[in-house]
Amino acid sequence: MYARRMMTFLIIIIIPIMLTSCLAKQIINQNGFIQTITVDKTNTADIYRMGIMFPDPEKGSTQNALSLSIEAENLPKALDHFQLKTRYSLVIGQLRNIIISRELAESVGVNKIIQTLLYNPKFPLTSRIMIHNGKASDYLKLKEDLTDYHLSNLLRKMQNQYKTGTNTLFNFVRNELEPGVDPILLQTHIEEGSVGIEGALLFKKDKPISMIDEQELQYLLMLRNKKMNVNLNISKAFLPTNQPFAVNNATSKKEIRILQVKPIPKIEIYFSIIGPLVSPINDITDHSRELTSDMIERSVEHGLNQFMRKVQASGTDPIGIGHIVRNRMSFEEWDEDTWREMFKKADIRCIVQYTLENEI
Amino acid sequence: MNPHLKSFGLTTLMFLVIRGVTFFTLPSLVTRIYGTNSWILIPAYVLVTLGGMALLIKGMEKHHQQSIFEVVHLHFPPFIAKLFSCLLILNFLAVGLTIINEYISMFQFTVDSSVRISRVAIFLIIAVLIVASHGLYTMTKTSIILFLISFWIIFIEILLFNDFSLTRLTPFFFRGGQFNWKGALAITYSFLGFEMLMVMSPFISKTTKAFRAVTYSYLMLCVYFTMYIILSQGLVSILQIPKIRFITLRLYGASRFPTVEYITDFLFFFFIFSAIMSSALYIWAANEGMLKLVRRKHSRTNYVLIGAVFIIIMALNISSRTWQAVSFWVGFVETCIVVICILLLLVLPYKQKVSHSSDLSANSSTSKDPNEEMAKEVP
């Protein structure tokens, strides 16, 4: 009786395993695990140049990537073509990067591109989506597997450094559909055969409208995230010294307070920053002992407020203030376009409170 | 002799049966129908269900733990009793089949379009029939193991709270939804499962507090469902949720873990246990009804026949829209049956079984001790 029960139990376990895993025999080194997809504009409407890159499974090294590209209406059509051009079975489930040319993103919008890609249920929503100022297919010409691991590792490093991440496909779609917040995407570039991050693009719905350079990227992330790690450069203009200082590896916490919604929204954004102040050798730095938290606060506040004005002028709300303002209105009152106008005119003030954790 | 069902086994079995497969779509459905902060309605739905179950158990106690088939055969003329039993059997079989179809549709959605629903269905139907044919006691014991190896998934969801936003949850209640009765009823079906007690009652130990045991299942599921809906509404905007068919799978798909990035398949695998147990219990209940209808009681023949019919139906080219409509109407009939059965159990007076009456005893197994029956089923 015990044996029969065990047998029943085994059958119950084995059947689901059969159902969920080995549907078709696939030898792992006969698979081409697509790591990167690039999408570029073509001269024909609704036709895109789609490129894929995957590591050569037989050479067994991450430095031997294979790439293919074709003009197609959507990814399934492109993949049908690619399947005829390689002996490897192409697998989409390990995709890491989607790189879209800025020209294409500006002309048709990122939504349309996503629609041409997301046909397969295995398409990972955690893949990183980025905009390239130039031809996205240039990534396929790189000899190293830059787009595969280097770019992915670069983003992971950023994510670990800031303790936040906002560049996934899931996040973009969510922000795009959400009332009161606009999406952002990182813009990548190739310099001397190496790939890097140039800054971030602010979007109005799904179209990029302005660029935030790498200096301001951190302010953008501070304003978007509730809590993150920051490295802040303190300008000497705010210090009694002849050299700039830095706040390293500090924790920044944000709180948005809506003081007034109408007629002009009045908003205060509080930052509570705690971290060590890093200076050059104190012996050769004048007045370094006279540095106060207040000076640091003014410097960071100045940077944040200046950045805030720039964002307001762009007419997009990547910070998600609209999200909070909407909760202060009646449900029917909210209107996305009206909010954009209100946001432009809003009186937004960033207030920083810095706690000097240590002097290094 | 096999022992009767005990509390823990009953709790785990009902947990798996009620969880079923509908909870994958539940957050989308609830948000679409009731709008913002509609998670608050889940405890209300559970309370109504518990009320229904309390009445059912009261009726069962009144009839000294007789199953609904026995009660019907004892009180109504054979023709009406058989007709009513047939309706119950057909409905239970239809519920079992729609659960299988729903799971495989999701399976195709998760894996890819190369999955052939009719072929995969054969495996699942076989698994369900094997489980059902071993009888209630084995099902209960299996459910304990399956419960223990699948319950932990809820803790993975807690990791998603990192990205959770109270602002997204909004301070508004029941705004932005598009209420319709069809949707509200479809939500009700997600909470059905307790009606199986009216077939299981003869097999439940007299010392087992069935109401308490099943209430524990419902309370766990109340936490489970509520948490998934709060998570969905705090992670994805109310405008987006109704557009996502299987929101729970989407949330799994969007989860990023330090070691594994795409875990949907892995987690989805564990829900097959719910699908199997849920479908198996309904098919077992249908078989119990069939045994009351026929003179010669061949349980295995019934299961083989059920399997053959199921495989043929799954092989037919039925569109997903038709399946959705069938699923809705099967749920509707089931809800009506639950209400009618509760009323019957409460209204009809208790009638003792007549051991040697000619027709009735020949056509039903009511005169037998359920233990004997179980001893046959579970060697």
TrEMBL record, chain A:
Any one Gene Ontology BP term:
spore germination
- Ranges where the Spore germination GerAC-like C-terminal domain occurs: 199-357
The listed locations are:
Membrane
Which species is listed as the source? Answer: Paenibacillus aquistagni
Q: Which InterPro entries match?
A: GerAC_N, Spore_GerAC-like, Spore_GerAC-like_C, Spore_GerAC_C_sf
The main location class comes to: membrane
Q: Which Gene3D superfamilies match?
A: Nutrient germinant receptor protein C, domain 3
Which part of the chain is the Spore germination protein N-terminal domain?
25-185
This protein's UniProt keywords: Germination, Lipoprotein, Membrane, Palmitate, Signal
The protein's name in its UniProt record: Germination protein, Ger(X)C family
Which family does the record claim for this protein? Belongs to the GerABKC lipoprotein family.
What membrane topology was assigned to this protein in its record? Lipid-anchor
Lineage top rank: taxon: Bacteria
TrEMBL record, chain B:
Q: Where is the composition biased (Basic and acidic residues)?
A: 369-379
- Give the compositionally biased regions (Polar residues): 358-368
Compartments it resides in: Membrane
Pfam (any one) = Spore_permease
Q: Which domain of life is it from?
A: Bacteria
Q: Which GO terms describe its biological process?
A: spore germination
Topology within the bilayer: Multi-pass membrane protein
Instruction: Enumerate the residue ranges of region (Disordered).
Output: 358-379
- Statement: the UniProt record of this protein carries the keyword Transmembrane: yes
Query: What would be one Gene Ontology cellular-component term for the protein?
Result: membrane
Family, according to the entry, reads as follows: Belongs to the amino acid-polyamine-organocation (APC) superfamily. Spore germination protein (SGP) (TC 2.A.3.9) family.
Record's protein name: Spore germination protein
Query: Which species is this record about?
Result: Paenibacillus aquistagni
